[in-house]
Structures are given as C-alpha cells and as structure tokens.
C-alpha cells in the first residue's frame, strides 16, 4: 500500500512488507531493494525520508544496532501476538489481513506512516536532535524527567527518576535517551493524542481483530492467555531482533510491569474502532460463539450447573432482547448504546437466572435444597434433583483449591527475563551485574526448593474447571434436573420461587462514576457473593463488573414493574 | 477508574514476600526457598525510597533459610554471604559481622578470624565513618578471638611448665595475642553498652599479667558508671574479682548491695546474707534478714534448702537472743498474707518431707517461728520427723514449743 510501482518481475502491483521493511511482490515473491522509507515521493512515510533527502548523517551505532522507530516495534509485537493466536487455533486471516490492515489504518490515521508529514514538524524534531550542547537551553524541549513522568505506563517511577538523575547532561546522540530513533519524540509529542500506542493497546488491536472475525475467544480468555504466557506481552521485546536495541525511553514504552485490565483493553478497543472509522462489524448472530446463548452454555458447564438452566438463560436473553443482532454487533462510533462485554454479559445472565430460581437470599436456596434432598431420597427414576447445597459444597471446594493455586502463582510470577534492560549505556554494567546476581541466587535457592519444579506453562485451555459425568462421586451436576425448583402452571414450567430482589433500585450514571452500580460486599447475601466470586474467578475480573451487568439485566427485565413501583419497595412479585 | 486491583510487579512481590514469611514462621524451609527464588528479581528494581529494601530482605531471609535448610552446606552459606556483602555498601560491615557470628556458631574460628581481619581493613570513603560502630564491634570481636588464642597458648604453657618444660615460642605468641586482644577489648568497653563477654576476657588478661588496679578500675567503671545500662552481671563480676583478690568483707558487701537492689532473687544473695549475718554491725545484720526474705519471695527459691537454712539460722539466732524480734515482725508483716499458702501449705509439707528432709527441716523451723507450733506445715513435718525417730526433728519440736510465745508476739 502506498507503493505503486510495478513489480520488475511480474509487472503486478501487489506489494507486501517483509520484516525488514522491504517491499516484496505478493504475486511472485520478488523482494525489492526498496525499503519502506524510500518510497514514491508522493507519499512521505516518515521523518527518516526527510533525513535522507536532506543529506544529514545517519546515526550509526557502533554496537551493531540499527535505527528503528517505535511503531516498527509495535508492529513486531502485534505480529508476534498474531502468530501466537494462530498457534492457538485462530484463523490465519487474522494475522495476514485483518490485524495488518487495522494496524496500517491506525498508522495512517495517526500520521505515523503512510501519509504526508507536515515538513515543518519534522524539521523541528530533527533540529532538536541536532542540538548537541546544553539540552536545557531549549525551553520547549522537555527534560528527561518530564518525559518519564508523562508516560502512562506504570512501574516504579522512582526507579526511573533515579536512573535519569544519574545520567549526566546529554551532549551526545539521542541513543542515550532511547534506542529507537523517536522514543523521546514519541512520548513527548503524542501524549496529547488519546490514542498513542501502548502495550495494552496491542491487546485491544488483537481483540478487535478477533471480534471482527468472530473468533471463539472472549476478551477475558484472551487476557488469561496473556497472563498464562501463551500470547507475548510481558517481555515481548525479547523477540525483537538483535539489531533493534532497546534502552532509555523505549523501556517506558515497551516494558510492562502490570497485567492488562479488562476495562482498559475493552474501552481502548472501542475508542480505536471509532478512531479508525471502521464500519459496522460483522453480525453476531445466534450461531456465533459470542452470542449469549452460546456463552451461557459454556459457562454453565464450567460452573457445574445443570444443563436445564440453559432454557432459562435463553428465555431471559430473549425477553430482554440482548440476543438481537443489532444489540450484539459492534457499531463503532455509536456513543448512545452501551458497549457489550460478551463474556461478562453471559455470566450475568446466569447469575440472574440463579436469582430467579433460587432467590439467593441466604435462606430460600437452602430451603429448596433441603426440599430437593428429601425428594431425592425417593427419587428412583430419571436424574437426581439438583440440590443447591451439594453443588455449593463441591464447587466451593474446587474453587478454593484453584483460587489458592492462582494466588500462589501470582506471587511466584517472574517478571524479568534473560534479556537485560538498561536506561543508558552508563548503567549497563550495573544492570548486568545485578542480573547475574539474581540468576545466581535463583539457582542457589531453586536447588533448595526441593522437588517442586517450576511447572511448565500449562497448556492453554478454554475451560479452567472441568467436571466429568463419569465421576461416580456425584460431583458433576450437568445432568441434574431442575424439577425440584420448578412447578407447572398453565402448562408452563415456572419457578417455585415467587420473589426476586433487585441488586439496586436505581442505576448510576455510568459516565459520571464509571459504574452502573456499586458493589459492596456487606450489602448482599453470601450466596450472591459466592456466585459472583465464582464467575469472577473464571473470567479473571473484579466481581463489581459482573454486578454491573446483573443490575443492567435486572433493570431491563423488570423495566415495567420498576416504573410502576415506588422507590423504596425493592421486593417484586414476578 | 482506579485500578487498585491491578496486579503489578510490586503487588506480586509483596504477595511473594508474605508467602515467604508464612513459610519461615512455620519452618518450612523448602517452601520458603521456593518463594525466595521468585522474589530475588526484586533486586533489579530500585526501592531506594523504602525503609527496608529487597537487598536487605533477601540477605536476612536467605541467611535464615540457608542456616536451617537440611540440604544447605556451610560452603553454600559462605558463598551466599559473600554475594550479600557486595549488594549494599551501607550494610557491608553488618553483613560481615553476622557472617562471623554464624561461622563462630559453626565452630569455624579461623574462618571467622580471617573475615574479621578482612573487614577491619575495609575502607569506603565516607561510609567508613558512618559505619564506625560496626567497625568497633568488628575490632572487639577480633580482640575476643585473639583472647581465645591467648587462652589456648596459656593453657599449653601451663601444661608444659607442669611437665617441666619451658617454651619460649609459646610464651612469645601468648604475649603477642595478649597485646592484640587488650588493645581492642579496652576500646570497646569504653563505649557505654553491655559488654559482658569483653569485660570478662579483658579482666582475665589483666589479672594474669598482674595489673589488678586496672582490672579493678575497669570493673568499677562497668558497674558504677551511670552512662552504662544497668547490668547485674557487672556487679557480679566485680564481686567475684574482689573475692579473688581477697578483699575485705566490707568491700564485698558493698559490691553486692546494688545487685540486691536490681535482682533480689540473684543466687549470690545467699553469699550476701551469709556475710551480712556474721557482721558485727547491726544495720548489716538487719539488711541480711531483709535480703534472705526477699530472695525467698521468688518461686525459684522455694526448694532451695541452703536459702532456707540461712533464714532459719538467722531467725533462730534472733529468737534465742530475744533481741530484734521486731525485725522479724517487720519482714513478716508484708508476707503473712501470702507466704503461708506460698511456702507452708500442707501439700508442700508432704512433698518437701518426701523429697528433701533437710529442706523440710529448715522450713519447719521457720514456719514454727512465724506461724506457731500449730501451723499445718510444722505439725506435719515434726510429726513425721519424730515418727521417723530423727533426732534433729525432736530437737526442732522442742525448740519451737519452747519458743512458741515468740510467735504470739510476732503475729500480734
């Protein structure tokens, strides 16, 4: 794209980009010598062109490094992530077409490449580079400390400041600031733009592509795979080629010290979709994995709940219209509709159904359970009646075990990697020495850890909890019957439970306080906590997010009644 | 929106640390090592704002694990300590010192000495001045080890001279160790502190070489200089020294006075009382009574026959002389409410009789005087004693019966 010459070999105009930034002909795979920067003069891709055309000296690093730009770095990251997703079973289209195009579109729109650059801007930037003496003499040029504080990535700011302050005034090339050519420029200039590329945003890109292709991976799963190490994120710069040296401010951009948060990635994705002016995404129909009916089925299985509950989740979905194509499909730029979190939504539907059938007020569900237990004693034909108590015990036990394992894993997480990072050439030796000591200590104490070897990365799996019908101990509840909690009325099966309690009578304004409702543990029944906790574990998100969706669903479900009822009456009859 | 729940490096390491701490508390060394392995990468982060940084944490925790872990060897331990020394220059001497302690605990005296010498020669700009205290300690401990070597040489010398040999080489070495030790030990005890082991060794050296006046001065300083923290041992050392020197009873008594004030239950109270009882001065004898009563207030002395015999002897003497009965009355006043149950119950009478007849004899005498011939303790013991036809118990019975009016005067 952007390169319109005909291929020397096959005369086609069908160009792609190699890793090295060279153009290759897709038809005949002829690799040209032309690199991305030296392009049709109609399109000035980036400042490097200006550099060349002005005949300025190219920076040549004597440690065998090459010049590279921040966006090239991100491009590499995305490529690695896409490859990992492909290895997980995502169709190759994602990498070769969708993600690629999204990325190029982003570059174009954010004027980092594939577009005309206002020449004046570039020159200014270059002249800033050129200044070889006192950095502070230019009042507009921010100090290193300022740049560091601008970066939105987390991590130990004190660290960086102390490193920064230990660096003397710069009089050399920009390689002291960053290994990349535009590291400092990137942080300084682009901060005003909301969509400056960051590491978490790479996941937004991935998710966006997955959503476009309607791949069966939810955002929570994607993030879980990232944490489990199946998708490069932490220390992804390990995969950068040797020549791309990372140091200084690059670290602020590419090194992460925290796991991405669902909300952050989700919101950014939507911003991105709008920014790129994308059209309506492909329809999410009821045969899609992301449709609530499908996801509910999956989560019901994982939560060890009876399959029969699926009828109920479908009923709720239908009743409040969240299974409609228009509701589920993403329409970028449409600010009025609430963005759909498919996974959280499905989980919330199940929670609502459980509340419908079992009330979950810390009394009724246990009563029903006892009742079912009684009936089960005389129950000889068909499957056993579902007993809430038994289910609770089984699931709680497993959940506690898994939660404990997860907590320990989180505490044992290793954040650093083999490839050392240093802010400047000056503290390279110090960093390397420290790294060596850390490795030594790890070896020494690793040997004393006994037979406990650090487990290999667990195989990526879609299900974290699994229950087998073959277990004779009765720990699988999939086949259990809901007859114990249902009754027939006018030929329809309805819940025996006549009551329902709303999580909140009034929804908050999400735009103002960020939530639809506020989840405080003390205010809700223990059973409700438990159920929220279960899905919170499965989706690896805070319970409050699920709670928000539950409130939303309830308000849709009881819409009419709410309008009629007065504010202080919270118990409704269905 | 705030992302406080965000899991980041810091939080992850905090959690890791709490797992380590739990494991340490439960002495699960393998598990602690497992988590420490994951914690050590904190070193690659700078925590200069924190009060206790990762390097110190790793040093302390690593030391504990390596010291207790069954599969860890001294070699590994030493290797680890050397690494820790390079980690933080502000802590260098402290780490050296603790390493030395561990070596000493493991009986590696020579290695400990080498480490101390090495540490002594360490210089690092302004840090040297800042870590002055640690340096003094290092010098002091080297002095201590020099003393230890001196002591070994001395023993050899003594052996040889007994066998009739004279060994000049050994003697020379001994003297040289003395010089080295004396210099450092003298320095440290100048600084206010608790230096029992240094003081003892230094005094030992001084005594051997006949410098008694210096030794006396040192011990007096140590015991009486108010800048030094109150230390019962200081008085004990002084007392023992004076006794060795054959000093007068007067000096000995004055040396133990403060000890009685600080630690009324000290074992030397028996000696103290014995000296005081025999004194010609009334005040001293009065003090003696006070001292022995005070000692027997403590549970640890309940079955100390010697202490009871001191008390019994003094009380008997007072009763017979019929002078100063008011002394007994004064001492008994604050004790009459609880001593009977504490010392003179029937249960104790039975037990004392069965386990230690001498003890029961002495106690019975005291009980008889203080509580009269009808008290449980006396009755039981004297009855059994007479039944067993032991002469002294018969004498006891007679004595108490004869002096029963005394009891009435005391208790009234």
Alpha-beta content class of chain A: mainly alpha
**Roughly how many Å is the radius of gyration of chain A?**
28 Å
The chain-level structural class of chain B is mainly alpha
- Measured between the Cα atoms of the first and last residue of chain B, the distance is 82 Å
Features of this protein?
heterodimer; A: 574 residues; mainly alpha; three-stranded antiparallel β-sheet; 22 helices; 7 strands; 5% strand; B: 412 residues; RNA polymerase I core promoter sequence-specific DNA binding (chain A)
Question: Describe it for me?
Answer:
The complex is a heterodimer of chains A (574) and B (412). Chain A has 574 residues and is mostly helical. Among the domains of chain A are: 1-36, no CATH class; 337-404 and 479-563, no CATH class. In chain A, a hairpin with a 4-residue loop joins strand 1 (15-17) and strand 2. The longest helix of chain A is centred in the C-terminal third of the chain and has 24 residues, at 388-411. Helices cover 46% and strands 5% of the residues of chain A. In chain A, the strands form three sheets. Chain A has a three-stranded antiparallel beta sheet with strand order 1-2-3, with no helix packed on it. In chain A, strands 4-5 form a two-stranded antiparallel sheet. Chain A has a two-stranded antiparallel sheet with strand order 6-7. Chain B is mainly α and 412 residues long. In chain B, helix 13 crosses helix 14 (269-277). The longest helix of chain B is centred in the middle third of the chain and has 32 residues, at 132-163. Chain B is extended and about 85 Å long. Chain B starts with 8 loop residues before the first helix and ends with a helix. The chains are: A mainly alpha (574), B mainly alpha (412). Chain A binds chain B through residues 154-156, 158-159, 162-163, 257-259, 261, 263-264, 407-408, 410-416, 431, 434-435, 437-438, 440-442, 444-450, 452, 514-515, 542, and chain B through 1, 3, 5-10, 12, 15-16, 18-19, 29-31, 33-38, 40-41, 43-49, 58, 62, 65-66, 69, 71-72, 76, 79-80, 83, 86-87. Chain A: This is TATA box-binding protein-associated factor RNA polymerase I subunit B. Chain A: It is found in: Nucleus, Nucleolus. Chain A: InterPro entries: Rrn7_cyclin_C, Rrn7_cyclin_N, TAF1B/Rrn7, TF_Rrn7_Zf. Chain A: Residues 2-33 form the RRN7-type domain.
